[in-house]
Each structure stands twice: as C-alpha cells, then as structure tokens.
Design brief:
The structure is a homohexamer of 338-residue chains. Helix content of chain A is 34%, strand content 22%. Chain A has 338 residues and is of the alpha/beta class. Chain A has one domain: UDP-N-acetylmuramoyl-L-alanine:D-glutamate ligase, CATH 3.40.1190.20. In chain A, strands 1, 4, 9, 10, 11, 12, 13, 14 and 15 form a nine-stranded mixed β-sheet that branches. In chain A, helix 6 packs across helix 7 and helix 9 runs antiparallel to helix 10. The longest helix of chain A has 16 residues. Chain A is globular. Chains in contact: A-B, A-C, A-E, A-F, B-C, B-D, B-E, C-D, C-F, D-E, D-F, E-F. At the E-F interface, strand 8 of E face strand 15, helix 10 and helix 11 of F.
Chain lengths: 338, 338, 338, 338, 338, 338
Amino acid sequence: MGRVVTFGEILLRLSTPRHERISQARQFDIIYGGTECNVAVSLAQFGHDATYVSAVPANDLGQAAINYVRQFGVDTGSILRQGRRLGAYFLEIGAGGRASKVVYDRADSSASEIKPGMIDWVRIFQGKDWFHFSGITCAISASAASVVEEAAVAAKKAGLTVSCDFNYRATLWSAEKGRQVMGPIVRNVDVAIGSGRDPVLQGLIGMDGNIPAPKRSAEAYRPFIEAAVQKLGFKKVALTVRDIYSSSRNTYAGVYYDGQGVAMSRTHDIDIVDRVGGGDGFTAGIVHGILAGFDRQHTVDFAAAAAALAHTIHGDFNLVSVDEVEAAAGSAGADVRR
Amino acid sequence: MGRVVTFGEILLRLSTPRHERISQARQFDIIYGGTECNVAVSLAQFGHDATYVSAVPANDLGQAAINYVRQFGVDTGSILRQGRRLGAYFLEIGAGGRASKVVYDRADSSASEIKPGMIDWVRIFQGKDWFHFSGITCAISASAASVVEEAAVAAKKAGLTVSCDFNYRATLWSAEKGRQVMGPIVRNVDVAIGSGRDPVLQGLIGMDGNIPAPKRSAEAYRPFIEAAVQKLGFKKVALTVRDIYSSSRNTYAGVYYDGQGVAMSRTHDIDIVDRVGGGDGFTAGIVHGILAGFDRQHTVDFAAAAAALAHTIHGDFNLVSVDEVEAAAGSAGADVRR
Amino acid sequence: MGRVVTFGEILLRLSTPRHERISQARQFDIIYGGTECNVAVSLAQFGHDATYVSAVPANDLGQAAINYVRQFGVDTGSILRQGRRLGAYFLEIGAGGRASKVVYDRADSSASEIKPGMIDWVRIFQGKDWFHFSGITCAISASAASVVEEAAVAAKKAGLTVSCDFNYRATLWSAEKGRQVMGPIVRNVDVAIGSGRDPVLQGLIGMDGNIPAPKRSAEAYRPFIEAAVQKLGFKKVALTVRDIYSSSRNTYAGVYYDGQGVAMSRTHDIDIVDRVGGGDGFTAGIVHGILAGFDRQHTVDFAAAAAALAHTIHGDFNLVSVDEVEAAAGSAGADVRR
Amino acid sequence: MGRVVTFGEILLRLSTPRHERISQARQFDIIYGGTECNVAVSLAQFGHDATYVSAVPANDLGQAAINYVRQFGVDTGSILRQGRRLGAYFLEIGAGGRASKVVYDRADSSASEIKPGMIDWVRIFQGKDWFHFSGITCAISASAASVVEEAAVAAKKAGLTVSCDFNYRATLWSAEKGRQVMGPIVRNVDVAIGSGRDPVLQGLIGMDGNIPAPKRSAEAYRPFIEAAVQKLGFKKVALTVRDIYSSSRNTYAGVYYDGQGVAMSRTHDIDIVDRVGGGDGFTAGIVHGILAGFDRQHTVDFAAAAAALAHTIHGDFNLVSVDEVEAAAGSAGADVRR
Amino acid sequence: MGRVVTFGEILLRLSTPRHERISQARQFDIIYGGTECNVAVSLAQFGHDATYVSAVPANDLGQAAINYVRQFGVDTGSILRQGRRLGAYFLEIGAGGRASKVVYDRADSSASEIKPGMIDWVRIFQGKDWFHFSGITCAISASAASVVEEAAVAAKKAGLTVSCDFNYRATLWSAEKGRQVMGPIVRNVDVAIGSGRDPVLQGLIGMDGNIPAPKRSAEAYRPFIEAAVQKLGFKKVALTVRDIYSSSRNTYAGVYYDGQGVAMSRTHDIDIVDRVGGGDGFTAGIVHGILAGFDRQHTVDFAAAAAALAHTIHGDFNLVSVDEVEAAAGSAGADVRR
Amino acid sequence: MGRVVTFGEILLRLSTPRHERISQARQFDIIYGGTECNVAVSLAQFGHDATYVSAVPANDLGQAAINYVRQFGVDTGSILRQGRRLGAYFLEIGAGGRASKVVYDRADSSASEIKPGMIDWVRIFQGKDWFHFSGITCAISASAASVVEEAAVAAKKAGLTVSCDFNYRATLWSAEKGRQVMGPIVRNVDVAIGSGRDPVLQGLIGMDGNIPAPKRSAEAYRPFIEAAVQKLGFKKVALTVRDIYSSSRNTYAGVYYDGQGVAMSRTHDIDIVDRVGGGDGFTAGIVHGILAGFDRQHTVDFAAAAAALAHTIHGDFNLVSVDEVEAAAGSAGADVRR
C-alpha cells in the first residue's frame, strides 16, 4: 500500500443532534475533522500508511483533536503545537427542504497562523509516495497558502505524486481571490479533484464544467477535463457530480480521467446521515484506486461508492474498509451482514 | 412588520425519542406548544411583534411553558396564571407505515377553564393589527369557545384583522358540534385557513373541498372557496393540500384566495422530522404574506414553503427566518450553507 | 385467542445509536430478543396466550433477558436457568448504501448447551394450540437441534399445530449442513414459513423459489409451494418477498398457501427504523391469521402489514396491536392519530 | 416464601435528569411506581409471590404502567382497566441544600375513581398470606378509601395478615382528615409501619413519636409503640427514623416491635441517588423479615439495610436481592463484587 | 421590587457531561452565561425587573444566547448585535480531588470589542434603580473597561445604586493590571462584593482579607471592610468565604457590612452539582436583600443560602425563588416537597 | 522519559449509566480497558513511551479496542489479532451502601488463548526500559500465565526492570492456585505492587499485611515488606491502603519501599466517579516516580495522588498529566482552574 501525507486545518465540529437548530440545542455532538484529515483517515482505513500534518494549540482541545485522529491509525506525530486556538464550526444537519447550515468560528486558528519554515517537509516526505492538500487550506490565510506551496514544491522535488481537491468555499474567499492564490500552486499538482461547478477551477480553466443531468456521460466531461489538463498541466483529473434533491437525499457520481481516457461511475442514490466529508471520501477513493493500480473504471466506481458510503456515517470520517466499498460499488447492496 | 395576537391553549408535549412506542420509552422529550402558540412563535421569527394569550397553572409547569415560549421572542406578559393543571399529550412520532399517535391528557386544563371576562382584550388589542385563533380552542370547552368569541368580537371592534384556522380534531368534538359552536364565531373572521377535508368547514359551507391529486389546481379549488366567502363572509381564504404517503413522507401544497383571485403553490415533497406544527407554519406564512404585502402567488408560495420547513424541525415551532423560507420556496434548495 | 409456545435462543443485542459504526460508538443500546421470542411477543400483543421457552444463565444478564420479555406479557415461567453465558451480538444499523452489520458473540451460550430431557415438553404443551421454532435454533448446536426435534415430536403428539421459520443464517452453518439437520425435523411441521431464496428450503425442495419482481404473483409462487407441500408434507406455506433498495428502504410482500389456494399481499414500501425482527412480524401475522380464522388473502395481507410495521419500531419486537396492523394493511395510512 | 397482595395507585413519574429544575428540562426520565407497587416489586425481588392490584386507564400509558411493573415479576393480572387517566407527577431530584420537589398531577386518576365492588377481593385473596396498603390510597379519594376498607375487611376475613404504611402526604389531605378516614380502617391492621413524626399516626395515638437523635434507642421508642398497640390494636409496629442533612445525604434507621420486644437497627449513612421509594424498601424488608421468620433484630436490620439500598437505585423500585440486603446489613460493605 | 441593569459578556459554555475530561468527551452540554448575566437572571427569579446589556454577534450563536437568557424573564432588548464572534469556554466539571478546568476561547469576542458610545446608557437607565458590573468585564479589553466606566458614571448621574463584584481571574489579567484599571472605576461603586482573597481588592485596599477558618467571625472581617470603605468609598461591602475541600464539596459563608454593622451568615456545607455561578448567586442575594429592605443579618443569610443553592443547579443560572432561598437559609432543610 | 511495555488482556467494559442496575439498563456505556492497558495509558499521559501488548480477535470489536487505546498515544502495533472473541464484562457502578457489581463474560477470549511463542518479545523489548504485568493475566489461563513467564524472563534477559501488580481476583482463581502459578513467575520481578490484604501475596510471604487504620504508618508496614523482599527477592515494593466507607467514598494511601527505606503518603478522601482503574493509577504513579528519579516520599505521594485522581474520571484510564498529579499530591487542591 502507499505512504500518503496530507496537510491542512483540523477543526472542532460542534453539531446539533436530531437535526435541531442551533437555537434549540442543549447539546452539541463533538467531531474533529477537516478535509485533508478526512482523506488521511479514509486512506488509513483502506490500509495505507497515512500521515496528517497540521497545527493545533497546546491546550486540551488541540490534544483532543490529535487523539481523535490517531485513534483511526493516522500518524499525527508531525502535527505542530502552536498558535492560540483551535478553529471551530457549528453545524446544523438539515433535513428535507431545510439546508444544513454552518456557522464558522475559525479566525485566528493555529492552522491559519502557520508559516513557511515551520514544518520540516524534507523529513516528512522521506520515504513517502503521495502528498495531498485542498483549496480550503489555501483560503484560510496567506501564510497557510504559502505553506501549501512550500509543501507542494518540496513534495514534487522529493518525487511524490501531488493531489489537490479544489473544494471552493464561498465563505472563505471569492472565486477571483481563489484563482489568484491557487493558480501558481496548482502548477505542482499531478492529480486534480474537483467539481465541474467549482468557480476557482472554472476560472483557472476558463470553461464551465457543469453539465445538466440528462446530458451527462464520460464523454460529456471530456472537453472540460482536456482544458484542465492543457491549461494547468494535470496528469489525472477526477470530478464529482452531485445533485441535491433535499438535505436528506442526493445523487452522487464520479468522473475520472487517468491520462488516457475518461470513465464515469454509476449514479448513487444517497439517503444522507451526515453529508460532511462526502467529497473527501471520493478523494480518498481516487487516491486508493491509483495507488492500488485499479483501471480507470474501477477507480471511479470505487471512489463514487466510497463517497456514497461516507454520507451514511455520522461525522466527517469515512470509516469503511476496501471490502465494504467494493460491495457498495457492485450490486451486492445493503442486505444485513449476519 | 405587524403586531399580532394569538389566543389558545399551550400543552406540555411529551414525545418518545427514536420513534419509540410509549410502552418502550424510558425518556420523553419535552416540548411546550399549541397551534396558536406555534403561529405566534413563527411570526416572531419572521420579525413580527407577536403576543400569545393563554392560561397556565401557577406551578412549575406553567412557568416552564411560559419560559419555553418567551425564549423565542414572543410576548407572554398577558398569559393568565389560573386553574389546576397544564394540559398534556403524549406523542409517538411514527415512521414509514406506522402512524404517529397521540394520547391526550388535557381534561380540566387551565386553558379549558378560562372564562369570559378574565382577559382584558381591550388592553391587549391596543395598537395591534391582527388576532388569530383556531377551532381547537373552540373545542376544548364551552367557556373557552365563549372567550374566543369574546376576543374575536373585541378584535373586530378594535379594528384588527381576524384569522381562524379550522383545525378539526375528531378526538375533541364531532363535526356537528363543531359546526354549531364555530358557526357564530367565524362570522367575525376575515381570513380563514383550513383544509378542503375539514368536516367543520365543509359542514358550514355545505360542500366537499377535497379534490383528488390529479385534478388539483388553483381553479379547481375556486368553487369551494367562493362558497366559503359567500356563506361565511371571509375576505381571504387559504387551504392546505396534504397527501400522506407514509409517516415519513408527505406532500404539501397551499391554495390562497386573496379576495380577487386564487393561486396555488408548487407541491413540496417532505421528509418528515416532526409533523406537529406543520399547518401552523402554513398559517404563519399566510399571515406574514398578507402583513408584508406579498401578492397572492408569493403569499401562498411562502406559506407552503414555511409549512414544508416546519416538518423538518424537531418540535412544534417553525424556527426559520424569512430568508430561509424564501430560499425553500425558490429553487435554491438544500445545499449546505457554508 | 390461541395458546402458543415458541422455543429458541434469546440474545443480548447491543446496537450502536445513530447508525454509528462499532469503532465510533461510546454507547450501545440494549435489546434482548431472538426470532422465536420475537414471534411470542408479537402474538402476545395480538392478544394470544404466548409462552416462550429458552435457557439463560443464572446471572444478572439472564434475569434481565427474562424481565425484558415478560414486560410484554409473555409467559417466561418455563425458561431454564442453566449454562455459562447469554449469547450476544453487536449490531450496526446501516443506512443508505451501507449494510447493517452483525458481529456475533454467541458461542457456548446457555441456549446452545441445552440438551434433550432438560425441558418438560409434556407439561408445557398441556392445553396449548401451537408450537413454533426456527432454523436458527437448529443451527446453534447439535444438542439444540435435538431439543427442537424432541419438542416438535412432543407437540405433534399433544395435538398442537407446529410451525417453522427456515430463517437461514450463513454465519451459523452451510446450506448443506442445514438441509441435513432440518430435513428430519421439518417432517413434523404443519406450517412452513420462509423465503423463496432460503438455501435450506430450496435444497430440501430441490427448486429455486426466487422470482424476479416483474414476474411475481400468487400464481408464480405456486410451483415452489406445491413442491414444498409434496416433498415436505407441509399443510400451509407462507413466503416472504423482500427487495432491498438500500439499508433505509426495502419493499416487502407476502405469499400464503392455506392448503387450498395461494394469495399474495400488496407490496409495502418500507422506510426502515430497525430491520431486525421484520420477518418475525410476518410469522406472527401468519400464525394470528390462522388462529383468528382469517381467509388466505386476509391472512397474508395482515402478515405483510405486520412485517412492514415491525420495520418501523426500534428493537426486535413488533409492539403493535391487531387494530394497528389492520389499519396498515388497509389504505387507512399513516395520518397522525389524534 | 409468602404470597402477598398490595393495593394502591400507580403513577407516571416524570423526573428531570441531572438534578435539573423543571424549567430547565428538555427530557423527563420515565418511571412508573407508587408506594404499594414499590412494596410488591421489592417483595418479588426477595422471592415472594407478589400481586399488585390497581386501576389504570385503557390507553397506552395504562398499558405501559402494567408492562413496567410486570417486568419485575409481579402479578398484574388483577389490575383494572377503567377510568380516564393515569395519575402523574413531576419530580426534581434535589441536591445538597436544594430539596427534591414534586408537582402532582394526579386528580381524576383511574385509581382515585375506583369504587367498592369493582374488585373481586375474595378471588384475589384466595391462597394468599398478606395484604398491604398505605395511607396514600386512603387519601386520594373517598371512594378509594372505601375500597381500602373493603379490602382490609375481606383480607382479615380470608385470614391474611394486614399491614399498613401510614405514609402521610400533606399535599393530599390534612392530618385531621387523615385521622378521620384512617381511624376505622386501621382497626383491621396487624402490622403498622410509619414514622414517629407521622401526624396521622400521632393523632390517632395522641402522642408525639419524634425522638431527638441523641436520645434514640429501642427503649426510647417503646412508649410510643405501646400506645399504638393499646389504642389501635396493632400486633407489630415498625418505625422509620430518618435525619435529613441534605438532599444528597440522609441517615436512616429502623425500630421494630414484634409483639414482644423492641429492636433498633444501626443508623445508615446514605448517599442518595433517588430517595423516592426508600420507605417502601423498609416496608418490604419488614414484611420479608416476618414472612421469613427472622427474629426482631434481624428483621429490623434487614429492613433498614433494604431502605438504605433503595436510596441508591434510580427509580422507585428496590431492585435488590435478599443476599444483597444481608450484605448491606452486615459490615461486608461496598467493595466491588468482581 | 427593584429595576436592575447589569452589563458584561455572555459566553457560550461547553461543558463535558459526567465529569468527563475534554479528551474523552463526545458531547458538550450547552449553557450560555456570564457573571453579570447570571446576576440578572437570578434577580428576575426573585421577582425583580432585570435588564441585561451585552454584545453578541449577528449570527445564530448570538441569537441563541439571547434566547437562552430571555427565557428566564430578563429584558434582552438592549443587547447589541455587533462584532465577529461569541466568546466561548470549555469546562470540565471536576470531582473529588480533581479540579474543574476551564479552557477559554474568548479572544476577539463581540463583547470585548464594545466601545464607548455604542450603548445609550441614558435611555437604558431611565426609571432604573440599580446598575451592576464585575471585574471580569473590566479585564476582557481596554475598551470594555472604558464602557464599564462610562456606564458607572452614567448610572451614578442617573441616581442608580452601583454595585461591583471584583471577581478576579488570573487568566485574564495580573493583579497589578487589575488594580490600575479598576481603581478609577470603583470610585463610582456603592456596593462592593468580593472575597477577602481577591488580589485586586487586596491591592486597592492594601490589606489581606483572608482569615483562617477558626478565626472567622463578623468582627474578624471588620478591619478589612473598614479599610475598603475608607479607601474606596464603598457604602456597603459583602464578602464571600469559601473553603474548598474537594471539587465535590465546599463550604460557603457570607459577610456583609450594611454601612452600620457587620453580619456573618452560617457556613453552608455544599455538595456541588455545578460550581460556576455560585458567587453570582451570592451577589444577587445581596442585591435582593438591599432592594427588599432586609436587615443586615437577613441580607447575608439570604445571600449565602442563595449561593449554596446555586451550586446545586446545572448551569450558571440560580433558578430558585425567594421562598426556596428563605427555606434554605433557615433550618427547614432538604426534605422532599411533596 | 522511560520506554515501558505492558502485557495483558483488554476487555470490553459495558457499564450501566446513572448507577443503574443491569436489569434496568437500556444503554451501556462502552469502555475498553484492562489493568496493564490502564497502566500503559497512564504512563503515556505522563509523557513516557508506552507499548501495550495483547491479543484481540480480528473483528470490529478487536479493532475498536485497539482504536480506543491508541487514541491516548500508546503504541498498539504489537497487539496480536487472533482467537475468537474479545473478553467482556458488565459493570454496575454502585452508590452509597450498594457495591459495584461485575458480571464477567471473558471465557475463551483472544487473550486467554495466547500461547508461548506467539509474541516476539526480543523484538518488542529492544530499546525498552521496563516491563509490567499483573496477576490477572496469570489467572485468565494456564497458557496466558506461561506467556507472562516467557515475557518476564525475556525482559530480565534484555535488562529491563520488571514490575508486577498482584491484583488478586477471587472470581478468577483461588488464593492457593494463585500462589502456585505466580510463585515461579514473581522470581523475575524487581518492583512488586500489591495490597497488604492480597491473599496471593500474603500466601507467598506467609504473613498478613493488613494493618488496621489507627496503627498504620510507614514503619508499621516494614515487617511485611521486609518479608516480601527476603522471600521473593523484590528490590522495591509498593502497597496500596484502601478503606471503603461506601461505594461513593473511599480513602486511599500508598506505602513504598525503595530498597532503602519505607515512606507512606497522606490518606486521600475520595468521592468516587469510577473506581475501576484506581489501582492502576497507583501503579503507573510508582513506575513514573522511579523512572523520573523521585525520592521515595515523592514517589509514593505522586502514586497515591494519581490513584486518587483515577477515581474521579469516567472509565478505566487515568487521563491526567504529571502537573495535575503533582497539584493533587500537594495541598493546591481542587479550586476551578480558570
């Protein structure tokens, strides 16, 4: 299996139970997670050697975040203890026609105050195969974006494959700002993951990758992917295709270009338990498919099924094994295993 | 915004968690609510000045009910403390093919023992715009019905708009009894809200307002509405149109006659978290549409979306803002707000 | 009403709340149940005199299991206290595309160590009408299978109707082993309940009873049923027909041959709260239909509706009354009962 | 072991978790209990054949109450289903200097509307040894008091021992009223249980039985007991001696006159988990001691230890075995049993 | 009753259930509170007209904080919606020898960014009797301290009584800094509340007010109080006297100088449910005693009993009535109220 | 800091919430722990490099146990996945006079089926300083005892310090059996930890080490310790001294002989949250004291304070830092840290 490093912010997630609104809640459920962390945890469940690099404050919450992650077998030994606070967000898990809602409280977090030179990337990347980051880490602060670039350059130099999930968040920056910051950074990226609707990705390519449901196919996404490859130099591109019928029901499919051809997965109908981390399940599935040497159809089928399963698990982490993903990717379905 | 007064009974609602049956339950979730109270709370969330008038016993449960309501910004200063007990009901929230089930324990409640003369309606209605009540308050006791009539007459005299939600409950009275009691009272009503299936409303009009799904349209409801206007003197009429596929899934639409024409909303598919208070969400939506000067299509679209959202929130209260209702009424849908 | 005896193993079921995975859980919900126990409890809710025979250890868990069952009105006075431990299993209740998962810990249980001669069947069957067991009890140990045979023979001798639910579990034995063990035992069975997909039943009959959805009808199941009747001597046969769309959604129908003709119920769409015990709800429905003298269509409609309701209740037990099943069997549907 | 019948009201108890006040609570813990029911359950745990007679409404709450009791092995087959509602009370479990607080909602309960002639005492008392009731049942209504008298007379006639726990509740009646009603009834009582502070007992005897802590001894209580025996004809008398240091800490001792001499138990220091039902634990201990043929010291030691243990168990029921009480009565103490 | 205004920061308090450490917790209990808010809520329970002034962000958490406070009858209409975030803290409730532990996350809160001129004190103080603040609000930021001074001056000018609880927090500032900032502000204070151990108070007076337990008496505290009166111009002074035996057990007494003499309360033994807000209970008791015209002994007895009760209630708020405090102040004690 | 290896069984612990009895419980709290595991976790919190060696089944429960332990920073990489089941026990946490109660279900566990040769002790002990085991692992099976001996011999050979906690459990074996099995094994032990009441330790020494409270002192324990040193060759001996006043309150002290003299700690009064793992807290404290080079008084003070704190934390693990133990050992006490 592979040896993967991911880097980004870990947040305290406080979610209301029973789909309650924040104004009703008398308890919050506690989860620690963040997009790159979620990818690392999923890869560890798939059997890979996963290292998560981040920064947390030297207090009980920082330690709790580390404990939370390492229980799932991720190497947390390179996480910095610095800065003033753990970023947090408050989450209402929506239902039916009521959207999930996030209130961020992540300003001045330890991760956003990370600076180039603080992390010894040379040491960390020694003997590793893969480095993954996302657009969110580029968005949280200028210095965090610099550290992402520092890491991506070091990873390339050390011979690692570099992947990036664009993961645009309108509350963190504008599409315009995102393009300016990410443009130079993604030059180091081998494997790009995103959505055809992502405004930063669209802006960098100069093309709209959103295709209406009836027209979707592997071929339909080819022009957008080819433009991405041509303009941004990606070797592989994976796209997520989500339709939102309600907070409780989505459909999800994946598209994947492996450098030679484009494949599309079947479309999964999803009854949602917890949507956060769904896309990270997809990313980990793509990384696993490549590391495991799957062909492009197998890779995207695996990744889409992983994403679908991630929606059925409370919390951000996709706590499923390779066997469980394969079963969900196939038609084996959801009969009780007993 | 408007200044609205509602009047009725507030009940202690004890519901079983996790769709449990009463015989399984070891804990009850506590909610305080009642149809007119729910309307007041929803209007307060929409930004209106809402006053709720009721009667509770002078004990800890009565105080708890008041506290519960005023946390959401409703004026509870005119609630009487009198009588012997807070009415209560036990609720199993059904699932799939199993219906939700209510066991009432509301006899001899403080609200049912309220009597004409106890409430100073002249003072309460000073500077107010609207008075709302429902058929349930007319049903709980003869003296409560008298107080409703007393209030409706006083409200008309003070120049308020008066609205009534028919809200028939077969466990409280017969349709025949309902017609006798409500007939004289609804003469004071400007805005009538109900269902085409409501037997009291049907009885008073002498026409069946239930239209099978394939034949439904704004026009299809016009004869029933015109009969209501002609016979009962309503100026505006709003109807709810619900189909029940299971305890977990309903569809919901609204019809609204604004004195000039009839409009019908789109039909919402609802994944139900908590059905109680759904109709009150619709009522509050209609009142808001009228107070905010929406046109008839906007009014009914807003009200139907409000009702749909009310089904997604634990408890009776529709804790959503105007912006959230507008988003649900439009196609914006249920993507995570982050 | 009838006087029914069931015999089998009762297990401690430890399930994760909120669809959590075992590796996430910090609490387990406690249920005690087992297929024959579930049938007894359901029949007691239908008003029958139900006796459950089993064996539990003489410790607090054994007593807790007895307490749990007798709260629902089942006679537990004949349960043995012997052996070393209460069998247990751990259950993740799946969601969407993620299957429910069971980890068994039932080796060396009190019930598996039960031996012929330990139970006074003559005394227990005195004045009784019906004896029910399942294939699971035959599978847990050779000695338990011997006790099942001992009981079935004694029941026939005492003039009781004997029913068997085949209930194949691949984790307990192979289909081949199942056929060898159950072949002689089912010679005593009057009423057979199973699925057309059950490999033991298929093996004993020598025919595949699985019919694809579009071809299903009462008639379509007739050849399989006739073969069962001819080869195995059953007087009545009931089959369950389940399709699994996801862990959250199944469809469920029943087929029933009453010795003269075959009837099929409508197909229920099920939003699942807790799938365990669904089949036991069907079995109890068939037994009730026969004991109550329902005709074959009424019997299978009742049984399928009972099974559908069983999926909507937390835990194994189908805590519904005859009236509630009849309502679900008809079109009355799932409106709030208030 | 003995065959004991108890009669009285069973209530739905709704208590706030975590010592919360009612105005804070969002959940209530559910317990069903009542003084005579608690005695029956405790005796069943001690191995006696216990029958509880009461009346509950024919709704889900009445059934839930029956289920709750029969899980602990008490015969509930003679409980009437009649009347309109299950009496209820709301309980805040105090802490430290904050007293526990009860809000009753028990008017018009099924038990309070029970009438002479409704219960077939002759049948119920057949083959039984003991009948127990309390002053609370005499207090809830005149008709309930008449049924108590009817039962006590029938029990004496059938040769049963009759016991009464005075159990004065100031919220139910005045001491004066209590004396008038209970005076004639207690003429049928063999074994009286109460407190030297009970105003009804004091009034009937005409003496204050409250002795300050430093002066307490078996001998010190003798005059009060002798007066009770002389004036009221009791054959045996048991007194509870409680000092309240805080809601969390009480001391508890017992005094017992067996017709020949007086014995006093050691004083137990109690860390309270749930005080309700403590006195019922004492009563069941006295009844057990007499039925088991313990001498007077053993009887009162057992009863006081049972009462102490009852305070350590959530809910009203004293779910402890004879062995556990004996251990607590001795010096064996509270080391982990592992 | 009085009309009281308090001003300060309201925080989101996230506490671990069951005395868990933060690293163990999977849920946090939610409370909103803050020292001046707690005083306002307690005074509202005592029947006073209480207004709480603060600043919260214009997001769901700010609204939730307002809702939380106004449920208990406090006027929240003057709370500003400004700034970026609601201050928060994480609380482990200790037990036995393990101290409670707080992790603050309150930097850059809405309240800390409040500035002079933002609040219309003239309007707010119109018709009011009393203004209360604490040293914590002076400590959170220089601008907050300026607003405190602005308010205190305005209050004096409007003829209100001004009270201050010194409430030193070592994590917020040094004693030296505290003296510098609070020195000028407390010149406006009529009623000072604090502890003899408070380093700011000690520093301003230049005397140690900590008296060992055996030497404590009203007289013993006189020199410290007289120095405070002389140096700082207070008219009344109240001191709290706490000894900490463990996280579960403290003793608590109060001392009060009413301008003429010094009185001391009895010492309460406290079994602690939730210590946060205990001192605020004392403060509210002192304010109530003065407003109600109690003599000095009654005032301090009431305040100390109020503080003791505050320790028995989950959360910061002292949700007890005047009657309940009086009962706890007397010897009535902690018998169940039923 | 040191590098410590511990070896033993990890169990699934299922405890009832709220001091409930097993027969009442509807939920179990989940903890994974075991005496040697608890020691490893505590040492990891103190900053040591801790490795825990055990065996768990290759199923979700085995994985959950590993995850649970590694979240706290213990190296679990040498845990075997073999055997059939994870041992379990059910725990009622007692209160007041009611003892905590354990129902074991640990037969045939993966750990009990471990055999010599399965674990590569040479590799594991490379670069390590310390090996710890307990008498419980010797008691669970003959093969487990053999593996303990194998490990102790290998540890001595590799130059590690070897410690043993006698930890007698009457439910696992007799004192006689314990002496036979442990006699040869403890010849390899450098540091012995136990109680003067431990029957195996007493038997091996041939002396009773239980000293009544009034006579206790460092000197009083000297004869027992000297006999242990002489007969069994220990270099250091630590004894725990517990008195049980109730399930809620114990006292705890430690005695420690460092090869030169005997020291005794102060006696801690303990309000118990969770007693399981208290002794393991003491053991880890002794190991830490030795590894950190504390003198004998400091070592035993630290260990006793660690044990006292361990009783205040839910679960088996003593999740406290060195600083927190030092504070508890001193007089700093239990004031809120804020």
